[in-house]
Amino acid sequence: MTLAFFDPQRHSQLVVDASPTGLGAVLAQKQDCGEWAPIAFASRTLTPTEQRYSQIEREAIAIHWGCRHFHLYLYGNSFSVVTDHKPLLPLFKGSSSKPPPRIEKWILQLQEYHFTLTYQPGTKNPADFLSRHAHPATSKEIEEAQDTEEYVRLVVERARPPPIPLSEVVTATKLDECLQLAIAATRTGEWRPLQRPDSFRTQQAQACLHALFNVRQELSVSEEGCLLRGLRLVMPASLTNRVVSLAHGAHQWIVKSKARLRNKIWFPGLDKLVEDTIQKCIVCQASGSPDHPAPIITEQGPTAPWQKVSANFGHLPDGSHMVIVVDDYSRYPEVEVVQSTSAQTVIPKFEKLMATHGFFGEIHTDNGPPFNSHEWEEFLASTNTKHRCITPRWPQANGEVESLVITRPKRTDQLFDKATSVVRAGGRCGTGVLLSTDGPFQNGDSGSPAQMQTLACG
Ligand SMILES: [Zn+2]
């Protein structure tokens, strides 16, 4: 086979392949006769860590490495990349794909190239031979592989529930029959033998593996041996109850508890376990909303942060109190600790909040002291603030926005419990409430309370 000269005017094609031990790439260009002529060949061995990658990861790194290796030829031109691994196509196609962290990193780095990925069955792949007889990797390539592992470590660290040490997750994963089978299948790409019922000791492991099989394209294995689904950590069965009770620490209801978990971790049967836990939780059941609340007439919600706020008090075991003010728009809570609930003590706190966030157009309270005092009325008049009183312990009367926030008294009680424990532990009250209760998931997809404010302002 003769090599052709590179011509920037011609269409280039990069054919890549990965074997269990190496990567191969062939750069070719279409000639006038319509034939593809090779321009250059390249190969490199995989590092021991890379050899433990899943098959899809090895095929993806072949694309990443091939493009980088032939950067001088490919950068700035559109070209096509040929792979013999079909499952890669959807991952490279659109933003709706959920690739494992390593592939995600490579896809991001490949954004500077303009290429289309196409599939060709492996039998015709000229890069296959190269990948099986590869040149040793250079020190730069080894360094890059280490960078990728750093990133995966970061993803695992971020996904791990803070109270559970990584070593515990690793050990529990090692002892989990289902996860071990899934890790082995992810590395080899061979799931078929595992679908035979006799490959399991328990029925539970079989059901678990079936769920993992359905998301197999999103799975990858970290260097320590943790299983990841996309950027989320797959929890071994022995830790799932603990993780759910941690996420349910502030007695959030089903949707919020699930959202808290889904953001960072996953395991087969997550939804059902959360539902069961909450059904069994006495505090949640006692404070749940009535089965058939009367229909309510909702009022117009605020259109910007800090236009309308709701205020309430919480009481701490040492006799001090918390003034809790929540922005109805972003649901961002501010908490101030005061020694008394007198108007003289409380009003300066409101002044401080107004100095920070601007004048509130409207404050909602239950009209208990000091919100029924003369000083409070004067303060409202001086700041041109409207005061709306809601029915105590019936927040629904105040419209939908309010029913979701701090004025929901039963929910507030739980919030106070949590805040109290944070204060006892020496933490900052406001931060504790924010982290444990209203967290970044209060608004579902619309972002955290802080993001809601910045987005609205910026
Ligand atoms: Zn609960």
Automatic annotation (TrEMBL):
Alphabetized SUPFAM superfamilies for the sequence: DNA/RNA polymerases, Ribonuclease H-like
Top-rank taxon: Eukaryota
GO annotation, biological process: DNA integration
Pfam families: Integrase_H2C2, RT_RNaseH, rve
Keywords: Endonuclease, Hydrolase, Nuclease, Nucleotidyltransferase, RNA-directed DNA polymerase, Transferase
Domain Integrase catalytic: 298-407
Alphabetized GO MF terms: endonuclease activity; hydrolase activity; nucleic acid binding; RNA-directed DNA polymerase activity
Gene3D superfamilies cross-referenced by the UniProt entry: 1.10.340.70, 3.10.20.370, Ribonuclease H-like superfamily/Ribonuclease H
Region of interest (Disordered), ranges: 439-458
Keyword Magnesium: no
Protein name (database record): Gypsy retrotransposon integrase-like protein 1
Protein source organism: Pleurodeles waltl
